[in-house]
Design a protein that fits this description.
Distance between the termini: 70 Å
Largest sheet: 6 strands, antiparallel
Strand content: 15-25%
Shape: globular
Structural class: alpha+beta
Length: about 300
């Protein structure tokens, strides 16, 4: 009788460096040369990749001139818009949720996409165009393309998720090889810790003392640091986050504008409405009307 050997197989734990949790939107746009964009902010990350032409991205008051084969990743709650340069552009845009800390290495810089990465990102949007019911828009005014959540074939979303994760992992490897300093990584981490606290307190009144006490830094240091890395003061960014929360409440609930103002600790509904219009460009009631019709997000 053959001897049965008991062997212990060593398991290798998989470190999930990048894990995408959900997708919000996929856009494919052929922008005309006159497209000027509008400012927006949202809790999802947003990748913009230039497939043809040139495109200008404005992120937290900084401008990034993207050429064909380049990309930019907006961090959550960044205030941003984009516009065409010269003769227009073809761009791919995807918004998604990812809480992996490694992806922070890709924030606030122009990303050069190599041939292999270009193949991956093109494949992602080919799949999106084929299975998620999005179509190429000839101009911005054709409207945004949303994921059709019905009748998506088995495994398609997982394939798209895996390919996009591979895309980001490859980008991170490329940047790591260039030797990003530990100091830069620390400074960026502090920015994200500040933003995380602002999100946590988004329904409270603003208090710089609370932020400083939580992070154990002086108020002056935090203010200077945050302004340097985002282009905005901490209080300005805090109100961007508040208004983004208001947009979600206006879209997903039927609560009154006065009730939403109270939930977010504004002094009064008049101030809330004025600030909302200043940041978004329209009043809360107008936003709600168009958001309910899926004409904006």
């Amino acid at each position: 009788m053959d001897e049965i050997r008991n062997s212990v197989l060593q398991e290798i734990e998989i470190n999930k460096s990048i894990e995408i949790l959900s997708f919000s939107t996929f856009f494919i746009y052929n922008f005309v040369s006159s497209y000027g964009g509008f400012f927006e902010t949202h809790k999802q990350l947003e990748l913009i990749y230039v497939a043809e032409g040139e495109h200008l991205v404005i992120n937290n008051n900084n401008e990034y001139h993207l050429k064909k084969g380049q990309a930019f990743l907006h961090r959550p709650y960044s205030v941003h818009k984009d516009k065409t340069i010269n003769n227009g552009s073809k761009v791919f845009i995807v918004s998604f949720t990812c809480v992996s800390s490694d992806i922070q290495m890709l924030f606030d810089k122009i990303l050069d996409i190599n041939k292999e990465e270009q193949f991956i990102i093109n494949d992602v949007f080919d799949l999106a165009a084929k299975y998620l019911n999005i179509s190429s828009s000839q101009t911005y005014y054709s409207g945004k393309n949303y994921i059709n959540k019905k009748n998506i074939p088995l495994g398609v979303m997982q394939i798209i998720k895996n390919k996009l994760e591979l895309f980001f992992i490859d980008l991170i490897h490329s940047i790591s090889e260039t030797g990003e300093s530990e100091l830069e990584a620390h400074e960026d981490e502090l920015t994200n810790r500040i933003i995380k606290l602002l999100i946590e307190y988004k329904k409270e009144k603003f208090s710089l003392d609370v932020i400083a006490d939580n992070l154990n830094y002086s108020k002056n240091y935090l203010c200077g640091h945050f302004k340097k890395y985002t282009g905005y003061t901490i209080s300005e960014y805090f109100y961007f986050i508040k208004i983004n929360e208001a947009k979600e409440l206006l879209t997903k609930t039927n609560e009154s504008i006065s009730s939403i103002s109270n939930q977010l600790s504004f002094a009064n509904v008049q101030y809330f409405s004025l600030l909302f219009k200043k940041i978004v460009g329209v009043t809360p009631s107008v936003w709600r009307y168009y958001a309910k019709k899926n004409l904006c997000y």
